[in-house]
């Protein structure tokens, strides 16, 4: 067998953590290309037309990496349960082979045991090496998620506009370069020190908006046209619960699903695949937390999210909370999204003001 | 009491069963009329713009029934006897239906991974204040009727397969194949063009066919070869589907490939997420076996003239 050179599906800032995972296992990695309009177009060109958007995006991300010499692709299936995500691997493998790429496709279930055996097979790493790589991966992953959360707080409050995003980009590139686990605590302290040095207006009364919806579009800023930072810069505090940790927690603790089901029973009595139920649960939760708006992000024609959208709209009508649903695909233009966001921010501000004046 | 059943989508998964089941229980059943222009328009108006065309048609049927009956029956189909799942859009149907119409929705979950259909039917009966005995009898009669129809269908298939005309296999979901308005009377059109359309639903699944009948029908051979020989010649590869229709469609295609078919047409409703996956493998299978393949997408804006032209062109290539 040829020496495996790995590439994998890109996923926002988490790509850094995945890259580290493979590197620590002693594998050669060519990270997938950063998503831009060109990779999206390339992916959409060879993907089945009716397939959902994240599949086309990740496919487009592989292509430049494959050109650079990668020959093995890692893909996790079964993240979405009943939805099309299951077949991403099968379809991508088929499409890539049909377009003349000689690749080795590793498609495995997202259960810890399967992931372990797939990694073991490809890397020949020892048990301890895998454990260590896994630990480092989780450390980085947690840090990325934490930084993102902190940035959500700082962005609308910063005095010098754009400071937070600047530090964020710097931190992520430093984190990507970090190779040794023992240097990790130092970098972590450094990043948080820098973040805390951002001058902010405390006690500012800000409207709060929550992002709900499909995990990939919600978490990847390059796909959703940086909704998070755009809202932040306009002085809106953004929250989101959906991230990898959230998803993993649900995998490890299945009763979390049961709790969610109990909360959303008046609206939906069954799973609909993917994170359909979670969107309803989160929306109800955020309304209780007195938020001023909900943005629902989904890939165009995403089966679970489209199924729950009428329910979200019903909740929106009942509670009066501003609600915006944005579907994304390769034909979505940034200008269109910007206009809709601007209008939405106005609605959110009005809603926030009117709530205050009632008290 | 009148129970309304929308004649769309999941109705076609088990046509006649529910109708006869409720009638046996002594209820009046109101079936919505065959899909027409008004129904589609009503559905499209209220539906989420990104949901699939078949779903939009279903909403139209629901709205037609709204107010005309006491209960509307919308079952929640989750998994079939092989423990394979239905389309995830079916899971939420009763909840979404309740948002849409004022008439109360009668529903029950059918999940063969967890329990027998009998138990689910008993629970359904309880909601209608019927005891177990009555349910058992009603379901029994309904199943018998369904079986009868299936057998008739199978015989039809063997009659059709002997036909001298060019045989075309129509691959799609039952709710596209049997709804004449939705598929723009595809069957009629093909017959006019001189072909013999065979619905993929009519093709028996391998395990269903009795050996004798099966062998006799293949070019009149007496069945000296083993079944394995017959199937080994084909190049089949597709992932293990967790959707019931995925597995079923592919298996039926596998059987259909044993006969001399002139071409295959797949009809898919716009926005169908599952078809996006299955189409890839259906197309691949037919192409590998060198059978001309046409893929048609239908939605509320499909024009009859456009379809006619494409069908004519396809017939010319065969």
Automatic annotation (TrEMBL), chain A:
| Pfam families noted in UniProt | DUF2229, HGD-D
Superkingdom is Bacteria
Q: In what residue span(s) does the DUF2229 domain sit?
A: 14-75
Question: What Gene3D superfamilies does its record include?
Answer: 3.40.50.11900
Q: Which organism is it from?
A: Candidatus Nealsonbacteria bacterium CG01_land_8_20_14_3_00_12
List the PANTHER family hit by this protein, alphabetically: BIFUNCTIONAL PROTEIN [INCLUDES 2-HYDROXYACYL-COA DEHYDRATASE (N-TER) AND ITS ACTIVATOR DOMAIN (C_TERM) (PTHR32329:SF2), BIFUNCTIONAL PROTEIN [INCLUDES 2-HYDROXYACYL-COA DEHYDRATASE (N-TER) AND ITS ACTIVATOR DOMAIN (C_TERM)-RELATED (PTHR32329)
| Entry-linked InterPro entries | CoA_activase_DUF2229, Dehydratase_Activator_Redct, FldB/FldC_alpha/beta
Q: In its UniProt entry, what is this protein called?
A: DUF2229 domain-containing protein
TrEMBL record, chain B:
Q: State the coiled-coil residue ranges.
A: 114-141
* This protein's UniProt keywords: Coiled coil
DUF2229 domain location = 3-201
Pfam families documented for this protein: DUF2229
Kindly give the Gene3D superfamilies that the UniProt entry links to this protein: 3.40.50.11900
InterPro entries found in the cross-reference section: CoA_activase_DUF2229, Dehydratase_Activator_Redct
Write down what this protein is called: DUF2229 domain-containing protein
